[in-house]
Amino acid sequence: MADTPPVSIYIDGSCIENRNVTADTAAGWGFVVVIGDRGVGRGTGDLMHESSGPVITNPNSDEWLGAEVGSNNTGELSAMVHALRWILVNCPKGEVTIRADSMYALRITDGSWSAKANKKLALLSQELWKEVAQVVDLHNAHVKAHSGHRWNERADHLAYRGQGDDEPIPLQFWRPGQR
Question: Where do the domains of the chain lie?
């Protein structure tokens, strides 16, 4: 495992109208995969992959993960699920740390907290966490939100753009803080 550089995955969710949320409330998710990041906020490491999209609340959709409403929390958990699926398909064996500014997403997924809503989505994230932990050395870490951390800010940008299924600004033209 020491020969494989550690992988950091930054996840985020976004919901502009995060009050009185319903299944029609727009929310988004995003994640960034970085190799060689130390997690200290300076944006070191190399971007390996990024992905984003809208939170799907329609149980009849093939892309539904279990979200009942669009919210910050369902965006965060959707990002977690998409990141964990990405690891299963693409990540070499080694150390992977999922970094999030949402304690909710981290604790629901690792089983420390119990979900009161969106239980199918929460259960899916927990099941995937256990599955991924069997194939990689999996960790999680909290990152302070909106503090200028480059990769966390990039995940935020992706999640914000994912609400409307909008294309993100290409990395070479994007700056932390841009939505």
Answer: 7-173
In this structure, what token pair is assigned to residue 1? 């495992």
Spatial contact of 81 and 105, defined as CB atoms under 8 Å apart: no
Give the pLDDT of the chain (179 residues) as one tens digit per residue.
456 788 999 999 999 989 899 999 999 999 999 998 876 666 788 999 999 999 999 999 999 999 999 999 999 999 999 999 999 999 768 899 999 999 999 999 999 999 999 999 999 999 999 999 999 999 999 998 877 688 999 999 999 999 987 888 778 778 777 77
Would you tell me which CATH number, out of the four given (3.30.420.10, 3.30.360.10, 1.10.3720.10, 3.40.190.10), belongs to the domain 7-173?
3.30.420.10
Pair of tokens at residue 29:
């998710």
Residue 13: beta bridge partners? 29
Q: Is the pTM of this model over 0.90?
A: yes
Core vs surface per residue 87-114: b (16+ CB within 10 A) or e: beeebeeeebbbbbbbebbbebbbeeee
